[in-house]
Design goal:
This protein has 347 residues and is mainly α. The protein is built from 17 helices and three strands. It has a three-stranded mixed β-sheet with strand order 1-2-3, with helices on both faces. This is SEC-C domain-containing protein. Pfam families: SEC-C. It comes from Streptomyces tendae.
């Protein structure tokens, strides 16, 4: 589907089928592609087919698909199930997602919004709060990905008539649109849609324009400036197959240090939306073939990284507090490459 294709002109069933075929050709991207396919199926009204795709991803017997974010898939499945009268199963999955305490804000937002949309406001508030407590306690600057968590919590608290707390104040600070969050989340707004007073309708149009501006801003955020990371085994395979690239990667330790140093320099210069994207030799070779270029050409490496980032495969840098380091060591980032002097130590 072209990015400028109007939504009403999309054949969602055909687009889902195309994405499924593409997933078969690019198994390393299967998770992202099949999730998009499931979204199209939901929009087409074929929610049972979307559930089958979620089950396909979650099935341990699925060949060549290793989930990066199983909690996200489960959250999407629960939200979808509830929309076609499978409430009990949806609730059970939501309880499981909450018990898993994912470090990614997206599953928290999805299950909380599912509860909210079915008037389970107290449970939605509890879920938003659990996610915020887990991901934002002692965090000085909330990552962009956590903003919907704070906005959703603010909205539900407004509907419940609860007074503002510190996280509500933080949400107000992060919100930059002309209309305040309090006004956007005012429960009385819906009443104005049925008003015969032109002033009420004009005010609501102004609010909706502000919301649309926020959505457009979120959708237009650029792909991350992503640094290409070769895991140790992939890097060894790459150098063995293409010795000419050894000058780019004298050692694995220096490769890691170069990534961290470059990201810190970019951050210091004010570059936003930074990330790290992992490469694999088969994927890189396929990309080189699609470009009609040699994998031994160093100039191809940044193009490959940009392409992977455009597919949504980049991991945000720096990782959230307590999250594992981007290098794959499984150690917390703050105890690995996030420490002062880590770059110098690797070098």
């Amino acid at each position: 589907m072209r990015p400028d294709t109007p939504a009403e002109n999309v054949d969602h069933a055909a687009e889902a089928a195309r994405l499924e075929r593409t997933a078969g050709l690019y198994p390393e991207d299967a998770e992202a592609l099949l999730l998009r396919a499931a979204a199209h199926l939901e929009l087409s009204g074929d929610r049972p087919a979307a559930t089958k795709l979620y089950d396909r991803l979650l099935s341990s017997g699925t060949p060549s698909v290793s989930l990066d974010n199983p909690s996200l898939v489960r959250a999407l499945k629960a939200s979808n199930l509830w929309e076609y009268d499978h409430e009990a199963e949806a609730r059970a999955i939501i309880d499981g997602v909450r018990a898993a305490s994912p470090r990614d804000p997206a599953p928290w937002v999805i299950v909380a919004e599912a509860l909210e949309s079915h008037d389970e406001l107290e449970a939605a508030h509890e879920t938003f709060t659990e996610g915020a407590r887990l991901l934002l306690t002692d965090v000085q600057e909330p990552p962009y990905s956590t903003h919907p968590l704070l906005y959703g919590r603010h909205r539900v608290r407004r509907m419940l008539g609860l007074p503002h707390d510190e996280w509500d104040a933080l949400a107000d600070t992060l919100h930059t649109m002309p209309v305040s969050l309090d006004e956007l989340h005012d429960p009385k707004r819906v009443w104005s849609l049925g008003s015969e007073d032109p002033a009420d309708l004009e005010a609501e149009i102004s609010r909706l324009r502000a919301e649309l501006g926020a959505y457009r801003e979120a959708l237009s955020r650029p792909f991350p400036v992503a640094m290409l990371h070769w895991p140790a085994g992939e890097l060894a395979e790459l150098i063995e197959a293409y010795p000419a690239l050894s000058s780019e990667y004298p050692s694995y330790e220096e490769h890691l240090a170069t990534i961290e140093a470059a990201l810190r320099e970019l951050a210091a210069s004010g570059t936003p939306n930074l990330g790290v994207v992992p490469g694999t030799v088969p994927s890189y070779e396929a990309f080189a073939a699609s470009e009609g270029a040699s994998p031994a050409d160093p100039a191809l490496l940044p193009q490959y990284a940009t392409t992977l980032a455009a597919r949504g495969l980049a991991v945000a840098w720096p990782p959230q507090r307590g999250a594992a380091c981007w290098c794959g060591s499984q150690r917390p980032y703050g105890e690995c490459h996030g420490t002062e002097g880590a770059v110098a130590a690797d070098r």
